[in-house]
Amino acid sequence: NSKAPSIAFDIDGVFKAGRFFFPNSVRALSKAKQAGCPVCFVTNGGGGLNESEYMASLKEKLRQAAAEEEDSASIVEDRLDEIGDDAMILSYTPMGEYEEFKTAQILLIGDPKEKVKATVAMYGWKNAVHVSDYFALHPTMNPFNEDASHTAVACPSAPYLPARPSTGSFSAQDIPDKDEVRIGRAPDDFDAVVVMCDPHDWFEALQAAVDVVVSSMPNTSEGIEFDIRRRVCVHFSNPDIFWKAAHPQPRFGQGAFRLAFEALLRARLGLLLAPPALIDQRLRDCVIQWGKPSVPTLTFAQRRLAEIFQKERSGQKKRS
C-alpha cells in the first residue's frame, strides 16, 4: 500500500524499560506490519553491538514478550521475519557510513571495549584506537593507576606551533580561520574523537578527550599545551542526558558525558589563558552531535525508510 505511512520506532521507553518488554508494543508492531507500513527502529542505544546483533537480540526479546500474549505470538513471528537488519538504526549507525572515518586516526570512546572495536572494524575504520588501549600506552595519563610508569615519554621530532604567543597573551590574529590547516603530526595527533556509546570509566575518557582536543602532543613534557590551530572534533552519538533503564529513576546518558566534557574543556582552555571568544569558538567547532533528534540521524532514518519501502514494494511485485 503506497499510502501507508512509514514508521520509525524508538526502543527504550517505547518497546521496553530496561530488560522488561511491554506487551502492547508487540501488538503495535504487528498492526503496523499488517497495515503494510515500512518500519525501522531508531534508538540512541547500541551498547557497542553491530546492527545485526542488536536486531537479533531485539527480535528474540519480542518473541518472548509475544509468547505471553497468545493472540500475538503467531502474528509477531511472521511479521518479525519480514524485518531485515537494515531496519535497525543505532545511535552510531549513521557514523558508520561516514567516509572520512574509514581512514582517519580516531580516538574511540565507548564500552564494552571489544564489542565497540569489532563494530568499527566492520564499518571499515582502519585507524581507531580505543581509549583504554591509549591509556595502556601512556599509563601516567591516569595518576590513580597503580601501575603507572613515571618514565618520561620521548618527544617525536616534527614542526609544531607554540602553545601560546611569546608575549604570553592571545590576540585576534592568533585565532585562525576554520580552513587553515594545522602543521605537524605526532602519534597522539588524532583526527577525531568518536564517542560510540557510554564509557565505563568517565575519568579516563574525559581526560583523554580533553587532552587530544587541546594538544597534538599531550603525553610529553617537551610538547605544547595548546595548539590554537588544532581542529579535532568530538563526535557524540547520543544526546540523551537521561534515559530510562531498569532503575526507578532516570540514569545519566551520553548527553551528561558531553556536558562534563564541555565544562572540562572550557576550564582547561581558561587555565591556559585562552580568551572567552576563542573558548566559545572552539566549543562550537569541535562538538558534533549525532543521534536522534539530530538532523543527520533523522535524515539517515528517512533515507533508510525510503530504501525499505522500495525493497518491500519490489518484493511484492515479484510475488504477484
Characterize the structure shown.
By secondary structure, the protein is an alpha/beta fold. It has two domains: 7-91 and 295-319, Rossmann fold (3-Layer(aba) Sandwich), CATH 3.40.50.1000; 93-142 and 186-289, HAD superfamily/HAD-like (Rossmann fold, 3-Layer(aba) Sandwich), CATH 3.40.50.1000. The protein has helices spanning 23-34, 51-67, 73-80, 93-96, 113-123, 131-137, 202-214, 254-271, 276-286, 295-319; strands spanning 7-9, 16-17, 20-21, 39-42, 88-89, 105-109, 127-130, 192-195, 233-236, 242-243, 251-252, 287-289. The strands form four sheets. A five-stranded parallel sheet has the order 7-6-8-9-12, sandwiched between helices. α5 links the parallel β6 (105-109) and β7 (127-130). α1 crosses α3, α2 packs antiparallel against α3 and α7 (202-214) packs across α8 (254-271). It starts with 6 loop residues before the first strand and ends with a helix. The relative contact order is 0.14. The model is unreliable at 148-185 (pLDDT under 50). Pfam families: Hydrolase_6. InterPro entries: HAD-like_sf, HAD-SF_hydro_IIA, HAD_sf.
Architecture per CATH nomenclature, i.e. the level-2 architecture of the largest domain: 3-Layer(aba) Sandwich
Strand content: 5-15%
Structural class by helix and strand composition: alpha/beta
Strand adjacency order, main sheet? 7-6-8-9-12
Order of SSEs: EEEHEHHEHEHEHEHEEEHHEH
Q: Work out the number of β strands.
A: 12
Determine the CATH superfamily of the largest domain. Answer: HAD superfamily/HAD-like
| CATH-defined fold name of the largest domain | Rossmann fold
Write down the Rg: 23 Å
Q: Write down the CATH class of the largest domain.
A: Alpha Beta
> What percent of residues adopt helix (DSSP H or I)?
25-40%
Counted by DSSP, the helix tally is 10
Distance between the termini: 14 Å
Mean pLDDT: 82
Oligomer: single chain
Largest sheet: 5 strands, parallel
Low-confidence stretches: 148-185
Structural domain count: 2
